[in-house]
Design a protein that fits this description.
Blueprint: E1 4-5, E2 7-9, E3 12-14, E4 19-24, E5 27-36, H1 40-59, H2 62-78, H3 80-91, H4 95-115, E6 122-125, E7 131-139, E8 142-146, H5 154-165, E9 169-173, H6 180-192, E10 199-201, H7 206-215, E11 219-225, H8 228-240, E12 244-248, E13 253-257, H9 263-275, E14 285-291, H10 295-307, H11 327-344, E15 368-370, H12 378-381, E16 388-394, H13 397-405, E17 409-410, E18 412-416, H14 420-429, E19 434-437, E20 453-454, E21 457-458, H15 467-471, E22 472-480
Parallel strand pairs: 1-5, 8-9, 8-11, 9-10, 11-12, 13-14, 13-18, 14-16, 15-16, 18-19
Antiparallel strand pairs: 2-3, 4-5, 6-7, 7-22, 12-21, 17-20
The structure holds NADP nicotinamide-adenine-dinucleotide phosphate and magnesium ion.
Magnesium ion binds next to strand 4.
């Protein structure tokens, strides 16, 4: 019998009336767990509990809240191996990638735990005599957090930890495809002794719970990571009530490869960013924009490198790429590959679902490269969120910059070059929220702001000190002495 993971409301594990299955995408025979099918009522109760817990949680001093976050980090760390394995089983990414993500979640809790002792405000001189003026931070209240499946522990962590350290109380709605990793954080919060009602967890269908969340009277803000479609809908609903909102959504991220790049590292960086985690990173490279002078050689090299990648169950050593997360994502990948065939011809490598033997039990797909993709093709414009790379030819640096920016999205971007001036040109002119130079476009740390621009994002950035901009407000004080 698979384990049932209940919702967590007001410090209690609520026995579910109905459940849904969380299955392993590498072996669909395996049910990783049964999760509560939350209802609008559950969301209502969770928001009410969060509201009731708010006064005492926000009145607790910052270092004391920080100490609880450190405890959460310690508990997660004590289960490091288990959490990594569970993530691979529920989401499909390889075990090293999953463990790296668990490590990140632990670090995030420690980072924001430390912020409890800093919580910077402003102290500035007044124009007036004997006036002391300053601004302190205050929490915004009950915050709804809605997270996707692709980073099932890091994204909940990078929303929960700053929300909590600022003194807010939360209702977390995890992705249905991979809710266990987020559940483990909530379990750790419970064990760490975070008071009842401060953290609430309601799993279940996004549509039902999303509506209930934006309708819940105590709610003051929503932080969402996921698709543009859901994000835009949430934005419209939240605006009706003037909820504070933060959206991190899709991307179509470019890597520019110039003729003067360190060739071998450019090959590795593009293949890594395009295909690792099955291309299911919001910061993955889906467009390689390659300067004409090295185009043919580069395309040949990434094709050869990609053919060596091993696709399989991410629990096995030596596997580079796991499965697509579910049948729906696999179907999307295959549909875009068919569109790509019509637009750009047969892919240089990949292009098919993998079948036979153990592959038949999962959603495995070959990493796929289309060459000679041009700007207006669908596969150059729309997010696929799978292991599909569109390679585009650029006449020179200026042409590459123009192509790279000719997209409604602006999440991440990368350039591979040894030309210092072009690096700076790119830094100032590339319209994306996250830039890398001579690194893969994916792979961020938690100490700096995270988020995109254009259609990719809305609202203040996440992570690092920027997280305070969303999760806290200022109270400004003028004092005559
Ligand atoms: P999704 O379908 O938008 O789902 C994201 C979350 O929203 C899930 O928890 C989902 O619940 C929930 N949801 C669904 N419908 C909702 C509604 N009407 N109201 C409120 N919540 C609702 O996205 P996904 O497929 O999980 O994730 C892939 C997408 O996320 C990609 O577009 C990717 O680019 C984006 N992403 C962006 C970033 C970033 O930082 N910019 C990071 C990671 C991923 P259910 O699971 O129950 O449907
Ligand atoms: Mg799953």
């Amino acid at each position: 019998m698979p384990t049932t993971f209940p919702n967590y409301i007001n410090g209690e594990w609520r026995a579910p009336a109905a459940t849904f299955e969380n299955r392993n995408p590498a072996n669909t025979d395996e049910v990783v767990g049964l999760f509560a099918k939350g209802t609008a009522r559950d969301v209502h109760d969770a928001a009410a509990a969060a509201q009731a817990a708010l006064p005492s949680w926000s009145a607790m001093n910052g270092p004391a809240r920080g100490a609880l976050l450190f405890k959460v980090a310690d508990i997660l760390e004590s289960r490091f191996q288990q959490l990594g394995e569970e993530m691979t089983r529920e989401e499909g990414k390889t075990l090293p990638e999953a463990k790296g993500e668990v490590r990140r979640a632990i670090n995030i809790f420690r980072y924001f735990g430390g912020e409890g002792s800093r919580m910077p405000g402003f102290l500035v001189p007044s124009e007036r005599e004997r006036v002391h003026m300053f601004a302190i931070r205050k929490p915004i209240g009950v915050v709804g957090l809605v997270t996707p499946w692709n980073f099932p522990i890091a994204i909940p962590a990078w929303k929960m930890a700053p929300a909590l350290i600022c003194g807010n109380t939360i209702v977390l709605k995890p992705a249905s495809a991979a809710p266990l990793s987020a559940w483990r954080i909530v379990e750790a919060c419970h064990e760490a002794g975070i008071p009842k009602g401060v953290v609430n967890f309601v799993a279940g269908s996004g549509g039902t719970l999303g509506q209930a969340l934006v309708d819940a009277p105590p709610l003051k803000a929503v932080s969402f990571t996921g698709s543009c479609q859901v994000g835009n809908w949430l934005h419209a609903e939240a605006s009706k009530r003037r909820l504070r909102i933060q959206l991190e959504m899709g991307g179509k991220n470019p890597t520019i490869v110039l003729g003067d790049a360190d060739f071998q590292s450019a090959v590795e960086n593009v293949v890594n960013a395009a295909f690792f985690s099955t291309g299911q990173k919001c910061t993955a490279t889906s467009r390689a924009i390659v300067e004409d002078s090295i185009y043919d050689k580069f395309v040949a090299a990434i094709t050869e490198r990609t053919r060596k990648l091993k696709v399989g169950n991410g629990m096995e050593p030596g596997i580079d790429i796991g499965p697509a997360v579910d049948a729906g994502q696999l179907e999307t990948d295959l549909r875009y590959i068919e569109i790509g065939r019509k637009e750009a011809g047969e892919p240089l490598t990949g292009g098919r679902r993998l079948t036979g033997g153990a592959y038949d039990k999962g959603y495995f797909i070959e990493p796929t490269i289309f060459a000679n993709v041009t700007e207006n093709m669908t596969i150059a414009q729309e997010e696929i969120f799978g292991p599909v790379l569109a390679v585009m030819r650029a006449k020179d640096f200026e042409d590459a910059m123009r192509i790279a920016n000719n997209i409604p999205f602006g999440l991440s971007a990368s350039i591979q070059t040894t030309h210092l001036s072009r690096v700076y040109e790119y830094i100032y002119r590339m319209d994306a929220g996250l830039l890398t130079v001579n690194l893969p476009s994916a792979g961020v740390e938690y100490q700096l702001p995270f988020g995109g621009t254009k259609d990719s994002s809305f609202g203040p950035k996440e992570q690092g000190p920027a997280a305070f901009d969303f999760y806290s407000d200022y109270k400004t004080v003028y004092l005559k002495y």
